[in-house]
UniProtKB/TrEMBL annotation:
A GO MF term: metalloendopeptidase activity
SUPFAM superfamilies reported for this sequence: Metalloproteases ('zincins'), catalytic domain
Top-level taxonomic group: Bacteria
InterPro entries, alphabetized: Pept_M3A_M3B (IPR045090), Pept_M3B_oligopep-rel (IPR011976)
Descriptive protein name: M3 family oligoendopeptidase
Residues in coiled coil: none
GO annotation (BP), single: peptide metabolic process
CDD domains per the UniProt record, alphabetical: M3B_PepF
Protein source organism: Oceanobacillus jordanicus
NCBIfam families: M3_not_pepF
């Protein structure tokens, strides 16, 4: 059995790859029967999977260690050639949608593949190749800049992730110092962050215009493959959040201030939930994994098999360390049918959230790994986040393994933070709409727009004199804004779906798990609303869904004596 360390990377020889690909594409074009067409598609997909495998091995290894010169160089190579790989995929999609065997192919693979193909065709043209390369380089430069953070704090040097526990410290002065130190890194490089984003906005706008769109908002939705909803529906959803969740979140923040004994919540208090200290895992990362093993064994046969697969092959890199990129993610290494989990454990309850959240993504990828269509290995982003956020709730019965006497604290804070997150997620989305509708804005105009959105969606925020944050710069630490434009509303839509799974699992765990398992096995074979329906969930866009879903959460939070925790 091969482990991750032994997965082989070899830089693709692009001229040779293109030659092989074009030969296979000709076979598909000239197929004289449905059987021949299918065989050609399978051969094309095999080549595409191998290229994706090489890309993912580079991406993972370069993000684990940004100081690894070899993999940084390979990452630069992929920044350069990935638009060429997109060009190959687009050429295939053009033949696919116009194939004389389309009807039979659609019967076999479903219509979602053809809708994805249409969207990919609409989002690419060889004339934007150099602009796409520029976009990739700028996006990578943001990730590398954040990963370079080495913050001096109380006599030590920390990455941004390693500062996390200090932001939850019982001593308010320590929290304040830690949050200011973290913001200090961004403030110190504010001009660079502005410059990178300014260039990204302009490059993306130029790509959109060259492809025939009014602005990048339209292209952004096409890139995100939003097949069955549009910007107007998202706007309606944001209004529901504004009317229903913002007042509730404000009420919860007031309760938090009382609970931790402060007159007014400051930005460095937000992560501190209880006067007696936040819930934290009661052991080392190794101990967490051992308990994770027990949890996934007891949850279901499927999760037991999946988690053992991950452990046997070393498919997780979990601890925060110097030179490692920020955040957490899950990806799939196609040729090995192996999901991979990347995280930054730092001793906070977030370590368990990552273990359940990213494992939700990985479990879905594992469940649908044999689906036979590369486009279906993962669904579109907002659907993918349902798997991850719902797994956080399906594992609730096992939280005592990790938190012991802090279990109730964890559950209360976990549910409340899900609610708190939604207005922020919606603000990030609206910010991006405004930015790309106004590509000529200066960095200062963008910051003014962010400040206004904070007033609307995050009225509790008080930066206590931190000039950098008060200027409207907080968004610079949100990597998605730089790397994957418009990928953020997805979390909020998925959170509403995950809350529904939380409610269902409390009423009938077996039935809820059955729906979830079915959803995971479908992979990306349906659109977002198609998957929501298949999982027996209500659409977040439907009037009243937000209100009804959140009412149950509020009722549970109200039933807890939070001051006693």
């Amino acid at each position: 059995m091969q482990t991750f360390e032994n997965y082989t990377y070899e830089r693709p020889d692009m001229p040779a790859e293109k030659e092989k690909f074009n030969a296979l594409l000709n076979k598909f074009k000239e197929a004289s029967s449905y059987k021949e067409a299918t065989e050609a598609i399978e051969a094309i997909n095999k080549r595409r999977n191998t290229l994706a495998t090489m890309f993912n091995l580079v991406y993972i290894r370069a993000s684990i260690d940004t100081n690894d010169a070899y993999y940084q160089k390979e990452r630069d190579f992929f920044d350069e050639v990935s638009p060429e790989i997109s060009e190959m995929a687009t050429a295939f999609y053009k033949e696919l949608v116009s194939s004389p065997y389309r009807e039979e192919l659609e019967n076999q693979w479903g219509s979602q593949l053809f809708q994805i193909a249409d969207y990919q065709i609409k989002s690419f043209s060889p004339e934007v190749m150099n602009l796409l390369q520029e976009e990739n380089k700028l996006s990578s430069s943001y990730s590398k800049l954040v990963a370079s953070a080495e913050v001096e704090f109380q006599g030590g040097t920390y990455t941004l992730a390693q500062l996390g526990p200090f932001a939850e410290h019982k001593d308010r002065a320590v929290r304040k110092e830690a949050m200011n130190a973290s913001a200090g890194f961004f403030s110190e490089h504010a001009d660079k962050f502005d410059e990178i984003y300014d260039k990204l906005v302009k490059v993306r706008h130029e790509i959109a215009v060259k492809l025939g769109y009014k602005n990048f908002v339209e292209l952004g939705y096409v890139r995100m493959q939003r097949i069955d909803y549009n910007a107007e529906m998202v706007d309606v959803f944001r209004k529901q959040v504004r009317d229903v969740i913002v007042p509730l979140a404000s009420k919860l923040y007031k309760k938090q201030a009382e609970r931790i004994g402060v007159d007014k919540l400051k930005f460095y208090d937000v992560n501190f939930d209880f006067k007696t200290g936040n819930a934290t895992p009661k052991g080392s990362p190794e101990w967490i994994i051992e308990n994770g093993k027990q949890m996934y064994k007891e949850l279901s046969d499927e999760t037991n098999e999946f988690f053992q697969f991950m452990l046997d092959r070393n498919l997780m890199d979990l601890e925060a360390k110097k030179g490692k990129e920020a955040g957490g993610y899950c990806t799939l290494i196609e040729d090995y049918q192996a999901p991979f989990i990347f995280a930054n454990f730092n001793g906070t309850s977030g370590d368990i959230d990552v273990l359940t959240h990213e494992a939700g993504h990985a479990f879905q990828a594992y469940s649908s790994r044999n689906i036979g269509v590369p486009e279906y290995l993962f669904p579109t982003y907002e659907s993918a986040e349902i798997h991850s956020m719902s797994m956080e709730f399906f594992t609730w019965p096992w939280m005592e393994l990790f938190f012991k006497e802090d279990t109730e604290k964890y559950k209360y804070a976990h549910l409340a933070s899900g609610l708190h997150f939604i207005p922020y997620g919606v603000a990030v989305d609206e910010f991006q709409h405004l930015v790309y509708e106004n590509p000529e804005w200066t960095p200062d105009e963008r910051k003014q727009a962010w400040k206004k959105l904070e007033e609307t969606y995050l009225p509790h925020i008080d930066y206590d004199g931190n000039a950098y944050l008060e200027a409207g710069s907080y968004w610079q630490r949100q990597g998605h804004i730089y790397d994957v434009p418009f990928y953020y509303i997805d979390y909020t839509l998925a959170q509403i779906c995950a809350f529904q799974f939380w409610k269902k699992s409390r009423e009938d765990q077996e039935k809820a798990w059955g729906d979830y398992l079915h959803l995971c096995k479908l992979g990306g074979s349906k659109s977002f609303l198609g998957l929501v329906e298949a999982a027996n969930l209500r659409s977040p866009f439907e009037q009243g869904t937000v209100e009804d879903t959140v009412a149950v959460i509020e009722e549970w939070l109200e039933s807890v004596d939070d001051k006693a925790l």
